[in-house]
Design a protein that fits this description.
With 219 residues, the chain is α/β, with parallel strands linked by helices. The protein has a single domain, classed as Flavin prenyltransferase-like (Rossmann fold), CATH 3.40.50.1950. 33% of the residues lie in helices and 13% in strands. It contains 6 helices and 6 strands; from the N terminus they run βαβαββααβαβα. It has helices at 17-29, 40-49, 102-109, 116-127, 142-154, 172-187, and strands at 6-11, 33-38, 73-75, 94-100, 131-135, 157-158. A 6-stranded parallel sheet has the order 3-2-1-4-5-6, with helices on both faces. α1 links the parallel β1 (6-11) and β2. α1 packs across α6. The longest helix is centred in the C-terminal third of the chain and has 16 residues, at 172-187.
């Protein structure tokens, strides 16, 4: 995707707020606009994991990003069900719930829209636009798995926060970038957040086009 687009991003109450912050930064740096909304639980996670002193009643989410990036950032209150991403006519290219709590995932899977985040996910599904949910939970119960299956069958992309290690990450940021890069891939947004997989030098057998043995899975 080369043209600038608008994306709706929802921060939910799951652990892993670093994924959401990195995604918004990458989209804004790429010239895209972001409509951002956060649940009250997400604000608690922000204060705890990112150590951001947000006011619970008047949280300034725009302050989380560098001033030059804020020009294309639109922050919406959770109760603002009249906000831009709540309408199918708004032209939002895709919606991403990152991190996605199991509670929000369950309500979206069952079409229960009680706030703006759940509504903008519902809009993405009804309009046939990309909806990417990034759950960060373990272990997963049968209820969790059933809800993820419902969303996948409805057309959503369920992309758990499961970083790979074949790119040999050196920092926590490398692990975050891997997951966010996977999200950007599904959105069709160009990025260079992680190194693409390439056949290791000297690993390819002379009589095969693949370095993997029969029965093994490639990354």
């Amino acid at each position: 995707m080369t043209a600038a687009s608008a994306f709706a991003v929802g921060f939910c109450g799951g652990s892993g707020i670093a994924y959401g912050l990195r995604l918004c930064t990458a989209l804004l740096e790429g010239g895209h606009s972001v409509h951002l909304c956060a649940t009250r639980a997400a604000l608690r996670v922000l204060r705890h994991e990112a150590q951001v002193p947000l006011d619970a009643e008047r949280p300034d989410l725009a302050a989380l990003f560098a001033p030059p990036l804020r020009r294309q950032l639109f922050v919406h209150d959770l109760a603002a069900v009249e906000a831009t991403p709540s309408s199918g006519s708004a032209g939002v290219a895709a919606t991403i719930l990152i991190p996605c709590s199991m509670g929000t995932l369950a309500r979206v899977a069952h079409g229960f829209s009680s706030n703006l985040i759940e509504r903008m996910a519902d809009v993405a599904l009804k309009e046939g636009r990309p909806l990417v949910v990034v759950p960060r939970e373990t272990p997963l119960s049968v209820v969790h798995l059933d809800n993820m299956l419902k969303l996948a069958r409805a057309g959503a992309v369920v992309l758990p926060a499961m970083p790979g290690f074949y790119h040999r990450p050196q920092t926590v940021q490398d692990l975050v970038d891997f997951v966010v890069g996977k999200v950007l891939d599904r959105l069709g947004v160009d990025h260079a957040l992680f190194a693409r997989w390439r056949t290791p030098a000297g690993a390819e057998p002379a009589d095969s086009g693949s370095p993997w043995h029969e029965g093994e899975d490639a990354p």
